[in-house]
């Protein structure tokens, strides 16, 4: 059984890690809030978020495969500098705040399991472990660790079965949308959308696919030299055809990987809302602001087993998401300033790249002790992500339809329809989110 799981995980690419990392402690807190406050009423959102999320991440992955560079480099090469700098101004603080909220959530939940040890100690310990893994593990090992951490998300699928949901009501809530036309409910829908379709995932997915295809192309160059040594004569056009054929195969494999990753992400969202919507909402527990509150509230309602599974899931997803958050930030900064470096290089070969990761994680840790609470961090992160998402999605659509960049691998009709729908929905959400802040 273990060998089959190992073989399956090895075959998967960046898509599964990207999708799983979206369900970080901050995301789990948002989904828990939705379940506690509105019961099963927001379950139907998964029907909307899955195809939109999958379409955008597939576009990002395809851009990475074709250009073999990160999204920031593509922006530098094809857009005015002010677009890039505007994106950095909004993205960098949002990612650091997200990291801080996740570290705080992990520490607080660990403190619930081991009350004798203060949450700060756990937060510092987790930060140290994360930095050690990111800096000292070889890239292939690091990615394998992230893939195995994806299995911790299965804990959230188990939890609802302790809460004994009414499955007929679950099916109804999933396939028959419930919309309450008030500011609070629409605000929750906006929060779910913003948490699920996050800009940092765009940069991570593009960079990881670019890293993977570079290794494939290096192997192609080796094969090309071997062909030349063996005396076989291939024209430049024939080599180009072979390369395009390989790219087509890689895109097919990538699409499956991305779809599986986004499906996993949305399943966890669904089961988290289901668990809290069944256990907490039915018991009159309507206000959940943090993941530790959600975990603590589950214990008397659904039993100690569900509480422990939920808590362990928070810690596992934190270990998965923070490397993705800090890694995506490092790719953004390094590519912006032309620093050579990526996760495939050792620390001594890419000191500026790893310095960004170290600084971002430490800033995230310190954020919790300079007066910014995890709840405030979530709010600020949602606003910053909400503002940047529509802009970046519009740019993604432009890049992915540009034949000068993408060649014959531009968007198909379905990708454009879903991409445009995502842009419009995120734009409306951003406007409504800003409206909420000024009218609340």
UniProtKB/TrEMBL annotation:
<keyword id="KW-0813">Transport</keyword>
<feature type="transmembrane region" description="Helical">
    <location>
        <begin position="378"/>
        <end position="397"/>
    </location>
</feature>
<feature type="transmembrane region" description="Helical">
    <location>
        <begin position="307"/>
        <end position="332"/>
    </location>
</feature>
<keyword id="KW-1133">Transmembrane helix</keyword>
<dbReference type="InterPro" id="IPR001046">
    <property type="entry name" value="NRAMP_fam"/>
</dbReference>
<keyword id="KW-0769">Symport</keyword>
<dbReference type="Pfam" id="PF01566">
    <property type="entry name" value="Nramp"/>
</dbReference>
<dbReference type="GO" id="GO:0015293">
    <property type="term" value="F:symporter activity"/>
</dbReference>
<feature type="transmembrane region" description="Helical">
    <location>
        <begin position="82"/>
        <end position="101"/>
    </location>
</feature>
<protein>
    <submittedName>
        <fullName>Iron transporter</fullName>
    </submittedName>
</protein>
<keyword id="KW-0812">Transmembrane</keyword>
<feature type="transmembrane region" description="Helical">
    <location>
        <begin position="145"/>
        <end position="163"/>
    </location>
</feature>
<feature type="transmembrane region" description="Helical">
    <location>
        <begin position="260"/>
        <end position="281"/>
    </location>
</feature>
<feature type="transmembrane region" description="Helical">
    <location>
        <begin position="417"/>
        <end position="438"/>
    </location>
</feature>
<feature type="transmembrane region" description="Helical">
    <location>
        <begin position="353"/>
        <end position="372"/>
    </location>
</feature>
<feature type="transmembrane region" description="Helical">
    <location>
        <begin position="113"/>
        <end position="138"/>
    </location>
</feature>
<feature type="transmembrane region" description="Helical">
    <location>
        <begin position="185"/>
        <end position="204"/>
    </location>
</feature>
<dbReference type="GO" id="GO:0015086">
    <property type="term" value="F:cadmium ion transmembrane transporter activity"/>
</dbReference>
<dbReference type="GO" id="GO:0034755">
    <property type="term" value="P:iron ion transmembrane transport"/>
</dbReference>
<dbReference type="GO" id="GO:0005384">
    <property type="term" value="F:manganese ion transmembrane transporter activity"/>
</dbReference>
<keyword id="KW-0472">Membrane</keyword>
<dbReference type="GO" id="GO:0005886">
    <property type="term" value="C:plasma membrane"/>
</dbReference>
